[in-house]
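Subject: Sanity check before I submit

Could someone independently write out the structure tokens for this chain? I want to compare against mine line by line before I put it in a report. The sequence has 84 residues.
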Amino acid sequence: MPQDYGDQTVSFKLEKDKPDQVYSILKTVYAALEEKGYNPLNQLVGYMLSGEPAYITSHKQARNLICKIDRDEIMEVLLKKYLE
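---
Independent answer below. Compare away.
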């Protein structure tokens, strides 16, 4: 059940060095998916929407890498990069 925060805005802060780590992991995962013949964008979107690691190949430890970071951190890095 979702938590009710009333009228308060919840703040989210990403650690300073985290964006570089997230970007590096995403590039590695993307390359591993591509090497295995998957459509990397489709697979990453499936993972982001569902949280199901099975969308990510275990090739080159890609699944283990992406599970080291929270999906909200990935989303923040992607949005920031897109909006720059």
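---
OP: Matches mine. For the report I'm noting this point. Residues 18-35 form the longest helix (18 residues).
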